Amino acid sequence: MPLPPAAPRKPLHTRRVTCQGYERADGLWDIEGHITDEKHYAFDNEWRGTIQPGQFLHEMWVRLTVDDTLTVRAVEVATDNAPFAHCPAILPNFQRLVGLRIAAGWTSAVKQRLGRTEGCTHLVELLGPVATTAFQTLAPVLSARRRGGAGGPPPVLNTCHVMASDGPVVKRWYPEHYTGPREEGN
Q1: What values do phi and psi take at 102, rounded to 5?
Q2: Which of 37, 23, 31 minimizes the C-alpha distance to 127?
Q3: Where are the alpha helices (DSSP H) in 95-176?
Q4: Rounded distance, CA 146 to CA 176, Å?
Q5: How far is CA 24 from CA 67, 71, 138, 142, in A?
Q6: What global pTM score does this model have?
Q7: 3-11: long-range contacts (C-beta < 8 A, 24 or more apart)?
Q8: Sign of the Cα pseudo-torsion (26, 72, 23, 62, in order)
Q9: Could you read off the pLDDT of 20-66 as tens digits, one per residue?
Q10: How many Å apart are CA 106 and CA 123, to the nearest integer?
């Protein structure tokens, strides 16, 4: 259900975040994120001149190449539009993500490497949805591969309340990993 109708208003700012996951022919995975910020009015920028509605104040990209364990093997970043000429100077620091695994503690590890003056706020924020997209891209494929092979717990187990090992969804979909109460005779 959508949100209820809003009070009368006018748009001022739009941020868009788009993420896509790809399976590569070489067995690795590319996860790409794109972020844009747009004002709905013209304003002056010292470096770029007047930025008109429809022009992006920020337009940035990140591509993480990961393996089956969600370990970052390569990073590519780009800044197409930014409010300051020297914004792109920080992009080489994003190579610090190589070797990092997308898992519990990802956000903290990213901020340790790229927080505050060591990174770009917008690209660091984009890495959260990119990580989620990586999980959403790989989990179903790897889970299907495991079902055809040795097995193991599904990657979604205990990642949210719906996938709790003692909950009804796991009981139905992954009964071998269900930890809740058993019915009499089972």
Answers
A1: -75, 105
A2: 31
A3: 106-114, 121-147, 168-173
A4: 14
A5: 10, 15, 12, 14
A6: 0.84
A7: 10/40, 11/40
A8: negative
A9: 999 999 999 999 999 999 999 999 999 999 999 999 999 999 999 99
A10: 14
